[in-house]
Amino acid sequence: MEKSKALFNRAVKVMPGGVNSPVRAFKAVGGNPLFIDRADGPKIYDADGKGYIDYVSSWGPMILGHNNPKIRDAVKAAAQKGLSFGAPAEAEVKLAEKITNFTGIEMVRMVNSGTEAVMSALRLARAYTNRKKIIKFAGCYHGHSDSMLVKAGSGALTTGEPDSLGVTGAVAEDTLVAAYNDLGSVEALLKQYEVACVIVEPVAANMGVVLPRDGFLSGLRGLCDTYSALLVFDEVITGFRLGRGGAQEYYGVRADLVTSGKIIGGGMPVGAYGGKKAIMEYISPCGAVYQAGTLSGNPIAMAAGLAQLAMLENDEVYKHIDQMCVKLANGMSAAIKDLGLKACVNQVGSLCCMFFGIETADDYQAVMGADTKLYARYFREMLAAGIYLAPSQFEAMFVSFAHTGNDITETLNKAEMVLRKMKSEGAL
Ligand SMILES: *Cc1c(COP(=O)(O)O)cnc(C)c1O
User: Which residue CA neighbors atom 11 of ligand 1 most closely?
Assistant: First the structure.
């Protein structure tokens, strides 16, 4: 902890909160953030050299585990040839071919983050439909572009209030907020307003993990068709994680536009948005929707993404990560039952989340009832025991191909030990 603490003391002097992305500051769980020195396979190592089994996986990208030798070699080879050209290169074509091939999306545009992908997809949806309003769901995260920093006031079907200072009321006004897993809330808005698109995380993985109810995603498809709105799946987390075809394939529902990020960069900063050719050709230079990027399609990032996606052609990857995640979720559920705790676990594919203080977590309302203080305590105890969880109740656990059965067993043993201790001390 010593070196992390010293680094954090320096960091807060020169960076707001000492971090470059807010959750990293551990505000939701207390204590100082660990500064990471290196990562390998399922583990990350802090500045003091202590190792932790990691379930953050850089928030999703590291689906094969950390420091994968093939990705590392691909990056090294690309770096030998120059770091950026600002002109087309073969690797961009290859990655675009891989993405379209895996997902059935016809065309993609590469950008540098999930935020950018979403922001651009929304602009495109507005241009294509010639409509202004967008429907999003409370509790779904789509990056930090202005129009997406809006959620519902106490679950009501209202025109959005900005979530962040600096977002103007005029921007927020065009963002309508519906309730996840509640088709009625969507239809009410579609009836009342001319809506360009409905954007959804097919599995909500930024309010913990909340699964779509049966019929929710296909219901959205139907509603969008009825009201001539585009359906946008934000697959920045689910893409290439629920399977090569992402949530579209997993749930058998096709979106008009899909946003990607995280996994497609193999750990480098990459995002992408894509869809049918007829829609994508509205983008400049084919059409009049402007969107550009100095470093978009960066050769190093493309090389990392390509190497990662190539390895995802192996079905064993998905078989393994799903199995490991089921083992993890079942183990946590068993511990909850054995100890008689009020808590629950949601899991799909290689994503899962344990919620404290609630018995079901099937929508935003339910999840907001979770006991974040208990989670914070659990987080700190697990960290001390060598398990690195997300520093917030409202984030997913990501299982990677590098997690072994032994890693999961060790994690479950420690979780049980921590939960038993919390119970004996009267916290649970
Ligand atoms: C992480 C995330 C984003 C934003 O991606 P960044 O690369 O952090 O900008 C957008 N949508 C979803 C669903 C995400 O999980």
Answer: 142
Q: What is the pLDDT of residues 225-277, one digit of tens each?
A: 999 999 999 999 999 999 999 999 999 999 999 999 999 999 999 999 999 99
Rg (CA), the chain: 21
Is the distance from the beta carbon of residue 216 to the nearest atom of ligand 1 less than 6 Å?
Answer: no
The answer as to CATH 3.40.640.10 being correct for domain 69-311 is: yes
CA–CA gap between residue 177 and residue 158 (Å, rounded): 6
**Domain 2-64+315-424 CATH assignment equals 3.90.1150.10:** yes
State whether the beta carbon of 238 lies less than 6 angstroms from ligand 1: no
Where does the pLDDT of residue 136 fall: very low under 50, low under 70, confident under 90, or very high at 90 and above? very high
At residue 160, does pLDDT exceed 90?
A: no
- Distance (Å, rounded) from C-alpha 132 to C-alpha 123? 9
3-state DSSP call for residue 37? strand
**Vertex 272 angle, CA 131 and 194, to 5°:** 10
Tokens of 149: 């920093």
Give the DSSP per-residue string, 136-184: EETT----S-GGGSEE-STT---B-EESSTT--HHHHHTEEEE-TT-HH
Are 63 and 242 in contact by the 8 Å Cβ rule? The answer is no
* Burial class for 214, CB neighbours closer than 10 Å (0-12, 13-18, 19+): exposed
Q: Measured from the CB, is residue 137 less than 6 Å from ligand 1?
A: no
Return d(Cα 387, Cα 408) in angstroms, integer.
10
In this prediction, residue 181 carries a pLDDT of 98
Q: Rounded distance, CA 134 to CA 196, Å?
A: 6
Could you say which DSSP state residue 112 is in? Answer: S
Residue to probe by mutation, ligand 1, list 141, 149, 258, most atoms within 8 Å of CB: 141
Q: CATH 3.40.640.10 residue ranges in the chain?
A: 69-311
Judge whether 234 counts as a catalytic residue.
Answer: yes
pLDDT(367) > 80: yes
Q: What is the pLDDT of residue 188?
A: 98
Where in the chain are all domains bearing CATH 3.90.1150.10?
A: 2-64+315-424
| Of 221, 211, 301, residue with least CA distance to 261 | 301
Q: Say if residues 106 and 276 touch (Cβ distance below 8 Å).
A: yes
Residue with token string 């929710």 = 216
Q: How many Å lie between the centroid of ligand 1 and the Cα of residue 341?
A: 32
Structural contact between residues 116 and 264, judged by C-beta atoms closer than 8 angstroms: no
